[in-house]
Specification:
- The protein has 163 residues and is mostly beta strands.
- It is 8% helix and 36% strand.
- It contains 2 helices and 9 strands.
- Strands 1, 2, 3, 4 and 9 form a 5-stranded antiparallel sheet that branches.
- A hairpin with a 3-residue loop joins strand 7 and strand 8.
- It is globular and about 60 Å long.
- 17% of the residues are buried.
- The structure holds zinc ion.
């Protein structure tokens, strides 16, 4: 029986992500496939759920609503902060960073606009509120190693690391 996608498998996929308008937002085409640890929340929940049970060679389209993707857009409009706060760091729209408060709570923020004096940051993921359209091909399925399971992510070629 051929392997199928299940928890604790390392799954390699080629994918192209488009929005409702058909604009390509991201794609592995022309590069290495994306390898991830299935069942560990490495990819958006709606895509992970729809890959479950697939086999090598399967090609399919997965439509993922915001609730199973990057969430609905919430909270205040993007906030302006002084560009000086970034020092010499080159900032541009699309970059993300993490702020930490005095209690150690971490919040990711995305830069949405850069002006001469101010940088506008948003707490929403850039794809929040978007319905995601994935065209997927399953390339490889293998068992995860003990270390990968312990860490909750893939240790691929050239991605070995020590924690
Ligand atoms: Zn690791």
């Amino acid at each position: 029986m051929p392997a199928s996608v299940a928890s604790n498998k390392v799954v390699s996929i080629h994918y192209t992500l488009t929005n409702d308008d058909g604009d390509v937002l991201d794609s592995s085409s022309g590069g290495e496939p994306l390898a991830y640890l299935h069942g560990a929340g490495n990819i958006v929940p709606g895509l992970e759920r729809q890959i479950e049970g697939k086999s090598v060679g399967d090609k399919f389209d997965a439509v993922v609503p915001p609730s199973e993707g990057y969430g609905e857009r919430t909270g205040p409009a993007p906030q302006a902060i002084s560009r000086d706060a970034f020092g010499d760091v080159e900032v541009e729209p699309g970059m993300s960073f993490v702020i930490e408060d005095d209690d150690g709570n971490q919040t990711p923020l995305w830069i949405v606009d850069v002006e001469e004096e101010h940088v506008y940051v948003d707490a929403n993921h850039p794809l929040a509120g978007e319905t995601l359209h994935f065209a997927v091909e399953v390339i490889e399925i293998r068992d995860a190693t003990a270390a990968e399971l312990a860490h909750g992510h893939v240790h691929g070629d050239g991605h070995d690391h020590h924690h």
